[in-house]
Amino acid sequence: MPRKNVITDAGLGIVAFVLSVGVLAADGLGTPETHVRHLDALGVLLAAASALPLAARRVAPLTVGVVTIAASGVMYRLGYAFDLPIGPAVAIYTIGLTCGGDPRPLRRRLAMLAPAAFAPVVAAAYAARGEDVAALFAPELVGLLAASAALGLAGDRTRLRRERIAALEERAQRAEREAERERRLAAAEERTRIARELHDSAGHAINVILVQAGAARLLHDRDPASSRRAITTIEEVARDTIGEIDKLVRALREDTDAPPAPPPDASALEDLVRRHRQSGLEIDADLTVPGEAVPRSVAWAAYRILQEALTNAARHGRGTASVAARYAGGAFEITVTNPVTANATAGGGHGVVGMRERASLLGGTLSAAAEHGVFRVHASLPVGRSPNGGRPLAERATGTLDRGSASARGEAA
């Protein structure tokens, strides 16, 4: 038990003892009766027995209640003017406070009987003195019984209120812990997403820069104009990538939940195909979108999946790819196929893992596998609604660029 409670209970017992002795010394409250027994050494001892045990009221409430009530009954029997039974009152309140919710049935029943025990003890003491209890003390005993019951009920209500407060505090602490855990999980997921975005952006940009730099080097002497265009493309891609990486790093530093602005709709896929054609990849594209705007989450995932698939096609393939995007059964379907070299490793790195994770976050699926020298990526992204018609983004168009020549730029998109 805390030291503060011990000191408080000891002080309470001393105060109750002093007040009890004072009442006995004054021969009760109000005008003393002629037959009252005056205070003596025995009265002091009985007053101490009725008050000082309160120092242990939290440790043994039932024992303290029995001792204080018994000592009070003896004082009534001997004729002391014990008009202020502070010790029994505090003991009854403490029993209701500490034992009312006890899981042990016996202690719980005793806690219920304790408030009703004081009045019968006093009645028995008056009867032992030869008093006519029914005629002289009936109203007093009824009031004493009501006061005892009120004290026991007050103790039990206080216990229930404290338990409710403790339960609410525990619930609040648990909710705070859950909220903190959710914040940490959200932060971890955000960092994973940022890492995925950084991989996609940097991988795409580096691949474009690599192809354009090679074309600029090869065409520097025989076609300076095409070489300059390739260098201009490198500059544009590098500038865009630096801006996007800056946003991602800022989000990582500031721990913000705001992602980089995604493409407004699936029409951004056409721009992505055009950029890859300009980098030297021959692309056969068949792209359609519905009449309504695609949800931003689906548009963003479709954009990144197609970007990664085309990056892998340029890095590990033979310079050609076929792209198809359409609605089927309430889902946005993306298929990218490209021939691969014998030693290609497309599909085994972090790019495919990122694509698959993007699709799964939307409740979709993604498959990526190489078979008979052709690598195929197929993603199905549910949009949560049926498409409202469709319009072609680009009729079937084949880029005419050679991987090593930046001079013949496909503008079919």
From TrEMBL:
<dbReference type="Pfam" id="PF07730">
    <property type="entry name" value="HisKA_3"/>
</dbReference>
<keyword id="KW-0418">Kinase</keyword>
<keyword id="KW-0067">ATP-binding</keyword>
<keyword id="KW-0902">Two-component regulatory system</keyword>
<dbReference type="InterPro" id="IPR011712">
    <property type="entry name" value="Sig_transdc_His_kin_sub3_dim/P"/>
</dbReference>
<protein>
    <recommendedName>
        <fullName>histidine kinase</fullName>
        <ecNumber>2.7.13.3</ecNumber>
    </recommendedName>
</protein>
<keyword id="KW-0175">Coiled coil</keyword>
<keyword id="KW-0547">Nucleotide-binding</keyword>
<keyword id="KW-0812">Transmembrane</keyword>
<feature type="transmembrane region" description="Helical">
    <location>
        <begin position="84"/>
        <end position="101"/>
    </location>
</feature>
<feature type="transmembrane region" description="Helical">
    <location>
        <begin position="134"/>
        <end position="154"/>
    </location>
</feature>
<keyword id="KW-1133">Transmembrane helix</keyword>
<keyword id="KW-0808">Transferase</keyword>
<keyword id="KW-0597">Phosphoprotein</keyword>
<feature type="coiled-coil region">
    <location>
        <begin position="158"/>
        <end position="192"/>
    </location>
</feature>
<feature type="domain" description="Signal transduction histidine kinase subgroup 3 dimerisation and phosphoacceptor">
    <location>
        <begin position="190"/>
        <end position="256"/>
    </location>
</feature>
<keyword id="KW-0472">Membrane</keyword>
<feature type="region of interest" description="Disordered">
    <location>
        <begin position="382"/>
        <end position="413"/>
    </location>
</feature>
<dbReference type="InterPro" id="IPR036890">
    <property type="entry name" value="HATPase_C_sf"/>
</dbReference>
<feature type="transmembrane region" description="Helical">
    <location>
        <begin position="110"/>
        <end position="128"/>
    </location>
</feature>
<dbReference type="InterPro" id="IPR050482">
    <property type="entry name" value="Sensor_HK_TwoCompSys"/>
</dbReference>
